[in-house]
């Protein structure tokens, strides 16, 4: 006779497992729901009692508006193009120097301001503070621009600063002459009003950022390092105010870059015996290299979403989404893998998920009937914060998987350290406060720059580097960056001036207030 007891015990165990799974599911859902309803990491210092630091107001009348726009347009008209590290328009750089001295006479004549040229064409300003115990900070911008030609399809000549509607068109209106002229215009107005900062500040204007900044920003950094300067924080260009750009987000978002992806340029090459095309071998140098490139494209770098600062971006924005996105983004501890899979489907969001791989050049062949002896390709990689340059090179080597293909690093560097963005982070919170004072309806969040800026040269002088300018980007505007029809509205340029005018005064805050409430942690 069969004993039914073992079957009963199996059934009982199975039932217990189901009940346990159900209980865990209910507990997880409850925890996730509570976090969704309560999470707002933006509250922090917004409701805290801030020390009053700003007391000078900026009033822009018609005459002043005409002057500031005329100065900005003149800056855009000067073609300060960097073609390569050895091919800079030095004539234009000297012309730009003369413009700065003419446009901002108080900055250049004030006894509070020390100015010096660095590497012939870059500018360094030191505005002395009245309280030397307060660590100084650095504002960065760059003079040079990338090439542009009317034949590329511009609606206005790229160095005309022509007005079309409410916009000024021209190369550099976004990157980066609006920030450069905006911060100097703000300082000019403050000095005219008799302002003297408590906290000292530097303003550095590099002349070769578009070709890596090795002459300009790097020279400024070495100069400050020799002088023993340690900075509270650095603020450079980078991210912006996004309005209608992030699908499903309620209202605009200002993203402050707290890191930059690393970068690498890798050369792949194959050498074989040349021959006549009438007697081809089974594999040619072109075929071998093409197969290696295909393997790289078919096997992207691992998905790393949530292991870098991009996770904080979505947590800060979560409360501005509707369900179910709000539920997912509020609970990345549970759904980071799911969200990563969603983001990797599109090229523009895939960049936040992993190290990206782009084949940008392929060279081979000299004649249609000759089997080439050599083929080479260049691959550009933007390295995720959770990886290192060496890890990426190892993955490329293993993915290529063919000893006939030489893998050579041309140039590269690791991702930049992640700067602080919590409630004790002086630089981040001062920038955030300045943004919210100017744009009260904006949601502020930390972000990551997928491109690189001059700020990376200053990582030895500070732990906190931020990348933000209050430029408003609406759908389609990101393509204007280094593209055609780069432009800025006259209103937005005035907002940049107001931003730096307020920021400089806000930085006189000695210390941050105690937070009103803390972010919820699971």
TrEMBL record:
GO molecular function: aminoacylase activity; lyase activity; metal ion binding; metallocarboxypeptidase activity
InterPro entries documented for this protein: ArgE/DapE_CS, Bact_exopeptidase_dim_dom, Pept_M20_carboxypep, Pept_M20A, Peptidase_M20, Peptidase_M20_dimer
Entry-linked PROSITE patterns: ARGE_DAPE_CPG2_2
Ligand binding (Zn(2+) 1): 175, 210, 482
UniProt keyword annotation of Ubl conjugation present: no
Gene3D superfamilies the UniProt entry points to: 1.10.150.900, 3.30.70.360, Zn peptidases
Matches recorded under Pfam families: M20_dimer, Peptidase_M20
Catalytic activities: N-(4Z,7Z,10Z,13Z,16Z,19Z-docosahexaenoyl)-L-phenylalanine + H2O = (4Z,7Z,10Z,13Z,16Z,19Z)-docosahexaenoate + L-phenylalanine; N-(9Z-octadecenoyl)-L-lysine + H2O = L-lysine + (9Z)-octadecenoate; N-(9Z-octadecenoyl)-L-glutamine + H2O = L-glutamine + (9Z)-octadecenoate; an N-acyl-L-amino acid + H2O = an L-alpha-amino acid + a carboxylate
GO biological process, one term: amide catabolic process
Domain (Peptidase M20 dimerisation): residue spans on this chain: 259-402
Similarity field: Belongs to the peptidase M20A family.
Name assigned to this protein: N-fatty-acyl-amino acid synthase/hydrolase PM20D1.2
Organism: Takifugu flavidus (sansaifugu)
Taxonomic path: Eukaryota, Metazoa, Chordata, Craniata, Vertebrata
């Amino acid at each position: 006779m069969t004993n039914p007891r073992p079957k009963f015990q199996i059934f009982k165990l199975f039932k217990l497992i189901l009940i346990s799974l159900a209980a865990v599911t209910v507990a997880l859902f409850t925890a996730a729901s509570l976090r969704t309803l309560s999470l707002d990491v933006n509250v922090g210092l917004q409701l805290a009692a801030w020390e009053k630091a700003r007391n000078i107001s900026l009033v822009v009348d018609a005459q002043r508006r005409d002057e500031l726009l005329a100065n900005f347009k003149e800056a855009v008209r000067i073609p300060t193009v960097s073609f390569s590290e050895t091919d800079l328009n030095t004539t234009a750089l000297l012309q730009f120097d003369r413009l700065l001295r003419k446009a901002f006479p108080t900055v250049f004549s004030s006894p509070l301001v020390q100015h010096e040229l660095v590497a012939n064409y870059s500018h360094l300003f030191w505005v002395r503070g009245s309280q030397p115990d307060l660590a100084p900070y650095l504002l960065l911008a760059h003079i040079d621009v990338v090439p542009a030609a009317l034949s590329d399809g511009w609606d206005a000549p790229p160095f005309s600063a022509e007005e079309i509607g409410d916009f000024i068109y021209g190369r550099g209106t976004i990157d980066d002459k609006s920030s450069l002229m905006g911060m100097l215009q703000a300082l000019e107005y403050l000095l005219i009003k008799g302002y003297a900062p408590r906290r000292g500040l530097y303003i550095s204007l590099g002349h070769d950022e578009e070709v890596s900044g090795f002459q300009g920003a790097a020279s400024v950094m070495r100069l400050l390092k020799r002088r023993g300067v340690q900075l509270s924080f650095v603020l450079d260009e980078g991210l912006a105010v996004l309005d209608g750009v992030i699908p499903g987000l309620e209202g605009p978002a200002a993203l402050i870059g707290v890191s930059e992806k690393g970068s690498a340029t890798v050369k792949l090459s194959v050498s074989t015996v040349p021959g006549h095309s009438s007697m081809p071998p089974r594999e040619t140098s072109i075929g071998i290299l093409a197969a290696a490139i295909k393997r790289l494209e078919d096997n992207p770098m691992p998905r790393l979403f949530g292991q870098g600062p991009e996770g904080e971006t979505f947590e800060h924005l979560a409360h501005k989404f509707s369900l179910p996105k709000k539920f997912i983004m509020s609970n990345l501890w549970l759904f980071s893998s799911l969200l990563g899979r969603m983001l990797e489907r599109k090229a523009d969001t895939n960049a936040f998920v992993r190290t990206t791989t782009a084949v940008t050049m392929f060279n081979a062949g000299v004649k249609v009937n000759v089997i080439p002896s050599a083929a080479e390709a260049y691959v550009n990689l933007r390295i995720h914060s959770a990886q290192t340059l060496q890890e990426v090179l190892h993955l490329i080597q293993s993915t290529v998987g063919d000893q006939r293909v030489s893998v050579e690093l041309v140039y590269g560097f690791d991702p930049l350290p992640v700067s602080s963005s919590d409630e004790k982070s002086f630089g981040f919170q001062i920038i955030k406060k300045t943004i919210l004072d100017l744009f009260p309806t904006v949601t502020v969040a930390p972000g990551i720059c997928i491109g690189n800026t001059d700020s990376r040269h200053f990582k030895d002088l500070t732990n906190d580097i931020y990348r933000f300018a209050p430029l408003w980007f609406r759908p389609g505007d990101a393509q204007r960056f280094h593209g055609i029809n780069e432009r800025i509205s006259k209103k937005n340029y005035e907002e940049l001036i107001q931003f730096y005018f307020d920021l400089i005064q806000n930085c006189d805050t000695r210390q941050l207030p105690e937070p009103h409430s803390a972010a919820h942690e699971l």
